Amino acid sequence: MIKFIYYIFFDIKASFFFKVKYFLEKIIKYPIIIINKIFKLNIKLPYLFKKDFIIENWDWKFVVKAKSWNDYMISTANEYNFREYFLKINEWKIFLDIGSHIWKWSVMLVNKKNITSYCFEPNPETFKYLKENIDLNNLSNKVFPFNYWISNIEWKMNFHMHPQSAMSWLISVSDLDKFEKNNVVNVKIIDIDTFICANNLQINNIDLVKIDVEGFEENVIDWMKKLLMNCSDNLKIICEITSSDKNKIIEKICSYWFNYKPIWEQDFYFFKNNFYEK
């Protein structure tokens, strides 16, 4: 909470009125979200921002979707820890951002480092914001977005888009009737090893992989074996593990000669040869 307050009032460039308005919206909304979840209610959330707006700090700026309970700001403790890890690592060449959302890490890193980023975001609406924010920061020559879900084979799969956020997740055919049809889309899927080959990327130049795929971590890892087996010792992996079998995912990544360090609850930092940037 302290970091969140600091971010709102000291890190972003906006009027004091805007900051207070944004802060109040967050404070009011989250108790209602919790109540709705616990008691299975549908209390409408208050939105003080009726239109999309642009947030800017000293390094970057981006478009934020209005009327969304899941905002796009780096505003939680775990994301602050992510940022600290990202910004203190030097000499990167290629960053694979798997589950890139609207850009956060790619734009932030490319602005700070001499690095090329390949972003993978399957949600069509979120992908639209991702491209907008890349253009807004004039980084279209260094950040390359792809509207793909990373998995094992090239096919299309059902994907649920939450109507009040940019969050989304895969759903099975048997569960289709549980979701509104207008919130379900097909997404194109490709495995990461095929992507690397098709785009003539040098595996030794891939220095960072970020994985944030809402429970499908094992699926992604299983189909980037060539990268993990042939990568340089410089490769770092930052992975949010929401799978029910967290230890299995950790063991699978470590089987490729990685060590790891917890960042925050579900978030882990993997590195090779006992090397860790302090």
Helix percent reads 25-40%
Shape by Cα distribution: globular
> Which CATH architecture?
3-Layer(aba) Sandwich
What would you call the structural class?
alpha/beta
Query: And the CATH topology?
Result: Rossmann fold
How is the largest sheet built, in terms of strand order? 5-4-3-10-11-13-12
Strand count, sense and barrel status of the largest sheet are:
7 strands, mixed
Radius of gyration: 19 Å
The CATH superfamily bears the name: Vaccinia Virus protein VP39
Report how far apart the termini are.
Answer: 25 Å
Q: Give the total of beta strands.
A: 13
Q: Supply the number of structural domains.
A: 1
The secondary-structure element order is HHEEHEHEHEEEEEHEHHEHEE
Tell me the fraction of residues in β-strands, as a range.
15-25%
Spans where pLDDT lies below 50 across 5 or more residues: 164-169, 171-181
Number of helical elements: 9
InterPro entries: FkbM_mtfrase, SAM-dependent_MTase, SAM-dependent_MTases_sf
Organism: uncultured bacterium
GO molecular function: methyltransferase activity
Protein name: FkbM family methyltransferase
